[in-house]
Design goal:
Aspartate Aminotransferase, domain 1, 3-stranded antiparallel beta sheet, 7-stranded mixed beta sheet, 12 strands, Aspartate Aminotransferase, domain 2, 11 helices
């Protein structure tokens, strides 16, 4: 079976061969438990975890001691949101976030509301951008946390994180940013966050591993642990270390730091090539958030009158998506696109194509041909149109 061209890197990335090579010894020969302090197997595993912590910290300009390894970004976001809400409950019970955040943030906020926390969800403009002034206006005396993602997973929109962070810090609240989609694609620095989250499988590392950065000075962030038991991570997150996955995350972070600039330049050119060709070939196609600062390899396009679900199924030669992978089983239109003011019909006529490190120009050119051909075919079949 011939596999399709993969243009869904925002959903997940293939593990880089160099990352896999670093991981392999920790499955068999160096299989020790990093918490086993009495013998060489444990020492080697602990050393590998410490090295990965330094590699992740270097990618975001952070103190390695401020990095906590988790099972992924979702756990890290739950830990940050719920951990802050509990630890700072006496100071206040108000959280500010944005309507276009990942469901891992929005659903966790909804769960916190059931426990008495108040949540303000800020709107975005029709390009998907948040205004820093809106963040400032939403802050209250009892605001303990503001959560704004660095880059949107569906549109690729980049938010003005440094400016927002300054506003929040001046107010005296904590600032959390989900940097999952931004890491390895654009420069990201913990200088502009009190809490930050990332995930291995969006970074050419393995699935099932991520991290939470929580500042340990100015301010020293207090968090109630989400998972107790074992005392790992200085008590911040219990459980046996997934050493091979942590090693993979560290290796992926190191490669990202070295290759980010080159990757971004090449993928921006390929994305622009794809968008220009599609706009030229299909008159009524729209590139969403095109006027905003975006990730270099993400394009989100609407083809009015054509079902995105039918289009993605028809394009057997190209693997892409209708939105966030975490919401792909839902029949509801994307909450991100709805926040941009899009109608239900247009939201359901929207596809996301996300390029990655392995993507070639030949693949992009073939994907253009396949996309254009299938859009034209579907437009001629009213039964398959919206």
């Amino acid at each position: 079976m011939s596999l399709p061209i993969y243009l869904d890197h925002n959903a997940t990335t293939p593990v880089d061969d160099r990352v896999l090579e670093r991981m392999m010894p920790y499955f068999q020969k160096q299989f020790g438990n990093a918490s086993s302090a009495g013998h060489a197997y444990g020492w080697m595993a602990e050393e590998a975890v410490d090295q990965a912590r330094e590699q992740v910290a270097a990618l975001i300009d952070a103190d390695p001691n401020a990095i906590t390894f988790t099972s992924g970004a979702t756990e890290a976001l739950n830990t940050a949101l719920k951990g802050v809400a509990d630890a700072y409950a006496r100071k206040g019970q108000h959280i500010v976030t944005v309507e276009t955040e990942h469901k891992a943030v929005l659903d966790t906020c909804s769960a916190l509301e059931k426990e008495g926390v108040e949540v303000t969800r800020l709107p975005v403009d029709d390009e998907g951008r948040i205004e820093p002034a809106d963040v400032a206006e939403a802050l209250r005396e009892d605001t303990i946390l503001v959560a704004v993602m660095w880059a949107n997973n569906e549109t690729g929109v980049l938010h003005p994180i440094p400016e927002i962070a300054d506003i929040v810090r001046e107010h005296g609240a904590l600032f959390l940013t989900d940097a999952t989609q931004a890491l390895g694609k654009v420069p990201v620095s913990a200088e502009h966050a009190d809490l930050m989250v990332g995930s291995g499988h969006k970074l050419y590392g393995p699935k099932g591993v991520g991290f939470l950065y929580a500042s340990r000075r100015r301010p020293r962030v207090r968090l109630t642990p989400l998972i107790d038991g074992g005392g790992q991570e200085d008590g911040r997150r219990g459980g046996t270390y997934n050493v091979p996955a942590i090693v993979g995350l560290g290796a992926a972070a190191e490669l990202a730091a070295d290759e980010q600039e080159e990757d971004a330049e090449r993928l921006t050119a390929l994305r622009d090539r794809l968008e220009a060709a599609v706009l030229d070939a299909i008159d009524d196609t729209r590139i969403n958030s095109r006027g905003a600062e975006r990730l270099p390899q993400t394009t989100n396009l609407t083809v009015p009158g054509v079902s995105a679900e039918d289009l993605t199924l028809a394009m057997r030669e190209v693997a892409c998506s209708t939105g966030s992978a975490c919401a792909s089983n839902s029949n509801r239109p994307s909450h991100v696109l709805k926040a941009l003011g899009m109608s239900d019909d247009d939201a359901r006529a929207t596809v996301r194509l996300s390029l990655g490190r392995p993507t070639t120009q030949e693949e992009v050119d073939r994907a253009i041909d396949v996309l254009v051909e299938n859009v034209r075919d579907l437009k001629q079949q009213p039964s398959l149109a919206l």
